[in-house]
Amino acid sequence: MSSRTEVQEAYAHCRQIARNHYENFPVGSVLIPGKLRPHFYAFYAFMRSADDFADLPHRSSDERLTLLAAYRQKLNSLSVGAYVKDPVFIALADTIDKFNLSVSPFERLLDAFEFDARGQWVFEAMQDQRWYTSRSAEPVGELVLALFGYQDRQRIGWSNEICSALQILNFVQDVKEDLAGGRCYFPREDCWRLGVEPENLSAKPDSLKKLMLYETKRAEEMLNLGAPLAESVKGRLKYELRAVILSARALIAKIVDIGGDTYNSRPTLTKREHVMTLFRSLITKVS
């Protein structure tokens, strides 16, 4: 059992990790209530640390997997109520206890990190890609919903569509960087269908653009399937989800505007666009 001081210090440690990164996780959103922020920091610190293990430079795949195995063992210890002397897990244990959370979402996140650590990025079909996003992205949405008191199957299903859509859009955004690192997160069947060789995606620029538009369209369809989630919840979460969906749609529009050429021009939203989306979320329903 951790002392009150130890728990507070653990949350402060997680907060520092989050403050140093942010990225796409909503730990920095002004729409997140202050009382929930420490728990968002705990989630983020767990994911950020594990992700770093999966992507450590100058480490072999076996070494990365060993580090992740140790993290999984710590998570297993939490699941049986054991004390883990690690600030990330001290904070995580407190959050899990307060919100009566399952460790399953965290286990699925580790599945994705282990997949990346193995360095074998091959998805034969769309279902294989979805296997990955169901572990790399969907648990995040499930955990966020749980902090706001929503754990029903319908809302989790909508959230899964949104989170997987966001992950696919991230693949489209980062195609150049991923290819440079030997990573390809697009189903091989999609590549062949659109005239792109999976092992050499950049060899045919026009076909690659078509592939990026195809994947973007799939993400848009998934986003639309999950959109009812925003109007099904109350309070600040409603506006946070609206902002997420509106931002994703704005990004999709940018990808379409450049004809899918994300290899040569990484589409992003400007700070002003993010602020405008935040304001729009307060008055605009999404469907």
Give the termini distance in whole angstroms: 45 Å
> What form results from the Cα inertia axes?
globular
**Rg over CA atoms:** 19 Å
Which range does the strand content fall in? under 5%
| SSE succession | HHHHHHHHHHHHHH
Q: What's the architecture of the largest domain, going by CATH?
A: Orthogonal Bundle
Tally of alpha and pi helices: 14
CATH fold assignment of the largest domain: Farnesyl Diphosphate Synthase
The largest sheet, given as strand count, sense and whether it forms a barrel, is: none
Query: What would the average pLDDT be, to the nearest integer?
Result: 92
Describe this structure in words.
The protein is an all-alpha fold and 287 residues long. The protein has 2 domains: 119 residues, Farnesyl Diphosphate Synthase; 167 residues, Orthogonal Bundle (Farnesyl Diphosphate Synthase). The chain has 14 helices and no strands. Helix 2 runs parallel beside helix 5, helix 5 packs antiparallel against helix 7 and helix 8 packs parallel to helix 13. It is globular. It starts with a helix and ends with a helix. The model has no long low-confidence stretch (mean pLDDT 92).
